[in-house]
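Issue 218. Parser rejects a valid record. Input:
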Amino acid sequence: MISDALLQSVYLFSELGPDERAQLAKIAEPMALAGGTPVFRAGDAATAFYLVKDGSVRISTISAGGETVNVATLASGAHFGEMGLLDGAKRSATVETLEATSLFRFDYGRIKAVLDASPPMAARLYRSFAQFLSHRLRQTTTDMSYAREKNLRHF
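Output the parser choked on:
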C-alpha cells in the first residue's frame, strides 16, 4: 500500500487532507517492473496516471524524422500520465523503466469516482493539476525559445 508520507510529499496531493489522501491510497495499485519495461507507448489509450515510488523512468517521443527524443527522466516521487485524466486524449509519449522500478497506478475511472463524491477535494486536486501543467508549459516555452535561439545563431 502507498504511504501517506509519499502521497503528502507529492505536491499534487499536498493540499489534500489526511482523509482525502487515504481515499487515494485505497485506489493506488502497486506495480513492480523490471528495467526496460514499457509502462505505456505513444498512441495508447490513456487510462491511468502513475507515481514513481522507487527507480526511474524515461519519457520519450519520436521526432518527425524518426529519431527518439528523450523528453525527461523521472525518479522517486515524480508522476506522469496525468494529462489524459484531464483531456481524454491518447498518450503523447512513451514511458519506459530505466531500472527495476516500483510504481503506483491511479486508474482514471477510480480517481473520477472519488472526485465526483467530493467536489471540494476535486477542486483542490484539479487546481494542483492546473498549476503543475502551467509550470510544465512555461518550461516548454523556455526550452523552445532556447532551441530556436540556438538554431538561429547557426544561420
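Fixed in the parser; the record now loads. Residues 4-152 form a domain with the Jelly Rolls fold (CATH 2.60.120.10).
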